[in-house]
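Quick one, tokens below:
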């Protein structure tokens, strides 16, 4: 005791004056003298423990360093000895090999063992080498050692074995180097096929070089080429990092002088020297080390990029979680894979950094604890309630969250160093924690505040403070001491600066401010008041007065409570004592009212709970304490406490229910309120209040959408088609569907509608639906026809509307159409037309023109065509249909290559690296299924050339048949016997129905069906009766057409005369010799006879006209005129054509003729000559056709006479050909064996 007292006295005397921080520490520690000695003892003990730990660590580090140096020295010495041994070898002579075994069997077995080499086989293989003569198998041995799949532990054994072979056979090193050069031939443009083997091979090759098995100069050259290629091709993705890291670990000391950074530091620390290999000079090692450092820098950039990508993905996942409340499994797995890859890359980078002695770049702090599993789990836990919005609308959110921050603009602002109240919520808001807190607080009898409406007797300054526990006393003492020092200094400075008059004036202004504060009834006014307070009245005394004034607001002014809470929140950002004091006053007032249990002052109680609720929404009142207040109300849930609880829930219930940390407890309390309402006999007004606030916080869920109510017959049809139909009961479904009333229009339409919707069934059952429709075709052909039309219309509509949402529907309908062909419901022509529509409807063959129905990046039409071909194309059995299908496959391959060669799927001109590989496999599998031996085109040019060849093959025949200018008659092509048989077979097979009895009687397949259940097929419905208006319209229409026809028969038919011969009277004048020779030289077109122009035939002559009877117009003879015209014509020579113009005279309408000459190049003469030429060519063509027909008939008669008599019956005409036996299709899917055999 004396020692302790003396120690305490000395310490107190030597202690300097306490500062503010020392005062707080002394208050917090309670000035306990015994703690000084205890602290000194603990400090001495800690120093002893630290010294012992440091000595143990030093011993461990020395031992580790010595072990590393010893192993490295042994490795270097063994390599030096092995290298010396392999460089000074003495090869055995020929007599040595003559004694050895050279049998083929043993040598071959030895080579096979080398291909499966392991370290455990070394001793046995060395014995076999001593006994076998392997001179003729050196190349095979080298290849076997290079190709062997080795492990890292097998490398020393392989070096020993190779060293033994090198010392025995002279040409071993040459063959071994050649084998390694082939194996290590790495191309910079190709990825490593087997990185694991290359990792072992690279180390083995380096070990062989350093051991002297492979010559140093060519070996180092090959090794350098491999390392350069590995580093050059791995600067982006660093996929070969494990190979380079393994080389640095095992061979880095010999080739680059690499020593682990830790060992280097320990050697420097303890003054030890690390041995170095003398295999390579320092200059060569420096070159490789420089290259490795450059690779390490690129790796560091990759690590930073991967970390940024990982952080971005985590951020996106968190944002998705906040918006949607969940994340997909795919994203979660992707994030986990990325995290695993980043961890692996980071660990490897750290290992290389340790070997090279280069520092690793500093990573972002988020990456240190960036575990996607923990992040995603935490986000899942926090978002288990979905997206929560505690405000409801943006205006409310802005009122409670957007507060003006004036901390940087206040002249007298100084941030408090210690907060009196910290609004940190507990780690878990549980009902047990609230109950424990309430039990501790209910033992305290706190009197009400003097500023409340209850008018207490004592002022608030004289209220006795509640007795706290010993644990709460220390932080209260420390806070009070600090705040008291700060307040005293602030008050002293204000008293020195401000006189008494200024204080009185400021007091009056502040009183006026407090009076006007209760008139601020909107957001702008209350914000202005808060700014004014912080700028002008922000002192400790005035803040205390402000707190009492706000707390004593009138009990009827419930409308101003949100604005006062906003005022306090703005002030709280600069000074926390206002909000803390106000929250404490409200909490004490609330507990006092609960403890009194009187039924008075209900308005004051409601004001208190509403004020608490508003402060909770601003974050000024702890949610833990607020939920504790609600729990206290629920303990005695009656009378005023019911209304108080309802008022509290009405103000802050939605906010607390939509906060993640308070949602569970709020839900429990709401359910408890509802149960208490049900279990307690209370006033109807209170029950209505409870229900109102309950559904305000938890609104009832919206009613679910009611299912469609269908008639019983419709439900039965859907049950048979969409639920009951399967492969085993197709016949039963057919029988049941035959029993429905097909005469009812509504039932008929709905059955057709269901039969047309194949996309509502499972994909495997579409064939069963086609089987069902095929079975109904014998009894309801009209309905089946409508179903087929609906299928075609649906496929056509899917092609005309490009919508990805209809993809599965279109695939199902294409499958359905193919199965319909398999069951002989549609013809092959319909299938081919559909296939051509798929690859041509709305398709643009110009890459610059984008079709909205078939965008360049849409490959769905390829899938659709492949689906239809896979379904029904193998059943195109006749030669005619197979040939048509072959023609389509040419165009189909062209469409495929047109899609694949589009720029949207290729980065360069000849590279289709972006084309989906799955689509490529689907296309090739389809062609292999349809035509196994089909020639598949390799490019778009080949497909275009095939189309051009097909056009040259088919189109010339059409041109020859349809060309009117062809002077000869082509041979009439007849249908060959094979095509005739194929067409006949197709027509016969298409007319065949499914193997079901057409009479309506079906075989009895089960005992549950009786003979009376089979029904004959229903007769076709009678045609609809015509109405009276229709009959009258048809009668009038027939009468009108008959009258029109009879009137046309009465009209005379006038033949149109193209040319009129010149009458004999117009030919009075004889032609001269010059005219005759001129007409002959003119050639065709004149025919030695002048022609009369039709254009002037109707022209009327007038008495004064110079073109009348005579040139003078007096009616004299026209011989002179004719002679002059003739002379003119003869003078014109071969460049003119004579014509005779016929006109109608003015005297009695007598026809008159005038001769004139037109130039040969005139329009009139040119047309006349062209018409005559066409007439002559037509006559020549008819003549040739007639002669060709005659010659063909004679040739056929001659060929028939040369044939033997027994073969002449095969030349009968196409119409007399006997019909073949028609093939009847079996029940179900077609039988390929029966078709092809």
């Amino acid at each position: 005791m004396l020692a302790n007292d003396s120690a305490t006295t000395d310490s107190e005397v030597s202690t300097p004056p306490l500062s503010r921080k020392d005062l707080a520490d002394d208050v917090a520690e309670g000035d306990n003298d015994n703690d000084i000695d205890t602290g000194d003892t603990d400090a001495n003990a800690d120093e002893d423990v630290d010294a012992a730990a440091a000595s143990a660590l030093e011993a461990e580090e020395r031992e580790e360093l010595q072990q590393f140096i010893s192993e490295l020295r042994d490795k270097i010495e063994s390599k030096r000895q092995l290298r010396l041994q392999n460089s000074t070898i003495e090869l055995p002579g020929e007599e040595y090999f003559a004694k050895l075994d050279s049998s083929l069997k043993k040598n071959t077995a030895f080579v096979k063992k080398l291909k499966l080499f392991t370290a455990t086989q070394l001793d046995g293989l060395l014995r076999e080498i001593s006994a076998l003569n392997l001179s003729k198998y050196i190349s095979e041995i080298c290849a076997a050692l290079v190709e062997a799949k080795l492990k890292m532990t097998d490398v020393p054994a392989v070096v020993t074995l190779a060293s033994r072979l090198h010392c025995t056979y002279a040409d071993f090193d040459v063959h071994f180097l050649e084998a390694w050069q082939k194996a290590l031939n790495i191309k910079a443009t190709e990825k490593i096929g087997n990185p694991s083997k290359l990792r072992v091979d690279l180390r083995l090759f380096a070990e062989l070089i350093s051991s002297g098995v492979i010559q140093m100069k060519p070996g180092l050259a090959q090794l350098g080429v491999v390392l350069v290629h590995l580093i050059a091709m791995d600067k982006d993705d660093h996929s070969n990092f494990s190979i380079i890291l393994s080389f640095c670990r095992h061979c880095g000391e010999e080739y680059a002088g690499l020593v682990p950074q830790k060992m280097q530091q320990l050697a420097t620390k303890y003054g030890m020297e690390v041995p170095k290999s003398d295999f390579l000079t320092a200059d060569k090692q420096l070159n490789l080390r420089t290259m490795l450092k450059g690779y390490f820098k690129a790796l560091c950039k990759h690590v930073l990029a991967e970390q940024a990508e990982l952080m971005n993905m985590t951020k996106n996942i968190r944002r998705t979680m906040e918006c949607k409340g969940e994340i997909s499994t795919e994203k979660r797995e992707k994030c986990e894979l990325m995290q695993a890859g980043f961890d692996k890359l980071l660990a490897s980078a750290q290992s290389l950094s340790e070997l090279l002695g280069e520092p690793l770049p500093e990573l972002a702090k988020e990456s240190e604890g960036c575990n996607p599993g923990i992040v995603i789990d935490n986000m899942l836990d926090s978002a288990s309630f979905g997206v929560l919005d505690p405000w409801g609308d943006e205006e409310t959110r802005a009122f409670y969250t957007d507060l003006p921050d004036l901390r940087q603009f206040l002249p007298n602002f100084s941030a408090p160093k210690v907060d009196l109240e910290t609004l940190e919520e507990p780690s878990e808001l549980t009902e047990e924690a609230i109950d424990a807190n309430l039990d501790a607080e209910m033992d305290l009898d706190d009197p009400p505040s003097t500023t409340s409406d209850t008018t207490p007797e004592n002022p608030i300054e004289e209220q006795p403070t509640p007795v706290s526990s010993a644990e709460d006393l220390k932080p209260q003492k420390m806070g009070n001491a600090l705040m008291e020092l700060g307040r005293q200094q602030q008050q002293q400075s204000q008293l020195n600066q401000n006189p008494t008059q200024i204080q009185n004036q400021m007091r009056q202004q502040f009183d006026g401010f407090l009076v006007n504060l209760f008139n601020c009834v909107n957001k702008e006014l209350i914000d202005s008041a808060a700014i004014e307070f912080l700028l002008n009245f922000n002192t400790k005394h005035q803040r205390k007065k402000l707190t009492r004034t706000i707390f004593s607001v009138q009990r009827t002014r419930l409308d101003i409570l949100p604005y006062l809470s906003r005022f306090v929140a703005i002030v709280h950002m600069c000074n926390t004592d206002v909000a803390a004091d106000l929250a404490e006053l409200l909490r004490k007032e609330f507990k006092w009212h609960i403890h009194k249990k009187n039924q008075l002052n209900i308005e004051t109680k409601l004001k208190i709970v509403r004020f608490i609720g508003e402060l909770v929404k601003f974050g000024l009142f702890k949610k833990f304490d607020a939920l504790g207040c609600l729990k206290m109300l629920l303990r005695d849930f009656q009378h005023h406490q019911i209304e108080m609880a309802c008022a509290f829930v009405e103000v802050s219930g939605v906010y607390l229910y939509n906060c993640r940390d308070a949602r569970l407890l709020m839900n429990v309390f709401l359910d408890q309120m509802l149960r208490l309402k049900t279990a307690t006999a209370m006033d109807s007004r209170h029950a209505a209040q409870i229900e109102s606030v309950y559904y305000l916080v938890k609104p009832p869920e919206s009613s679910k959408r009611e299912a469609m109510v269908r008639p019983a017959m419709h439900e039965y049809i859907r049950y048979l088609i969409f639920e009951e139909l399967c492969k085993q009961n197709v016949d039963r479904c057919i029988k049941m569907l035959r029993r429905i009333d097909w005469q009812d229009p509504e039932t008929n339409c709905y059955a057709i509608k269901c039969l047309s919707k194949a996309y509502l069934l499972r994909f495997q059952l579409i064939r069963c639906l086609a089987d069902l429709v095929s079975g109904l075709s014998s009894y309801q052909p009209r309905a089946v026809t409508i179903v087929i039309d609906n299928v075609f219309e649906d496929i056509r509509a899917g092609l005309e509307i490009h919508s990805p949402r209809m993809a599965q529907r279109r695939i199902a309908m294409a499958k359905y159409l193919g199965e319909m062909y398999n069951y002989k419901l549609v013809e092959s022509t319909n299938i081919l037309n559909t296939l051509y529509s798929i690859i041509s409807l709305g398709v643009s063959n110009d890459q610059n023109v984008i079709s909205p129905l078939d965008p360049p990046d849409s490959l769905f039409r390829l899938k659709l065509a492949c689906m239809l071909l896979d379904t029904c194309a193998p059943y195109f059995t006749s030669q005619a249909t197979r040939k048509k299908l072959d023609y389509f496959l040419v165009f189909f391959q062209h469409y495929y290559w047109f899609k694949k060669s589009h720029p949207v799927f290729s980065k360069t001109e000849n590279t289709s690296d972006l084309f989906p590989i799955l689509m490529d496999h689907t296309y090739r599998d389809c062609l292999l299924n349809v035509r196994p031996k089909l020639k598949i085109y390799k490019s778009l040019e080949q497909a275009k050339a095939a189309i051009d060849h097909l056009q040259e093959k088919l189109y010339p025949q059409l041109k020859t048949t349809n060309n009117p200018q062809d002077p000869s008659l082509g041979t009439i092509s007849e249908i060959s016997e094979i095509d005739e048989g194929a067409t006949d077979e197709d027509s016969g097979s298409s007319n065949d129905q499914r193997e079901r009895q057409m009479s309506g009687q079906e075989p009895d397949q089960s005992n549950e069906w009786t003979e009376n259940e089979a029904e004959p097929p229903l007769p076709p419905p009678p045609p609809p009766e015509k109405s009276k208006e229709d009959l009258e319209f048809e009668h009038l229409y027939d009468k009108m057409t008959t009258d029109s026809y009879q009137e046309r028969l009465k009209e005379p038919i006038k033949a149109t005369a193209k040319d009129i011969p010149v009458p004999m009277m117009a030919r009075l004048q004889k032609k001269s010799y010059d005219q005759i020779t001129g007409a002959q030289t003119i050639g065709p077109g004149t025919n030695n006879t002048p022609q009369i122009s039709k254009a002037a035939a109707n022209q009327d002559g007038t008495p004064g006209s110079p073109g009348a009877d005579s040139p003078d117009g007096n009616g004299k003879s026209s011989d002179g005129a004719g002679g002059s015209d003739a002379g003119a014509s003869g003078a014109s020579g071969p460049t003119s054509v004579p014509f005779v113009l016929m006109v109608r005279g003015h005297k009695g309408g007598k026809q008159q003729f005038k001769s004139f000459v037109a130039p040969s190049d005139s329009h009139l003469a040119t047309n006349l000559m062209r018409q005559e030429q066409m007439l002559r060519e037509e006559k020549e063509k008819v003549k040739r056709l007639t002669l060709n027909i005659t010659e063909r008939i004679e040739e056929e008669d001659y060929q028939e006479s040369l044939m033997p008599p027994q073969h002449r019956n095969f030349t009968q005409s196409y119409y007399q050909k006997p019909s073949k036996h028609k093939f009847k299709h079996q029940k179900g899917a077609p039988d390929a064996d029966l078709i092809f055999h």
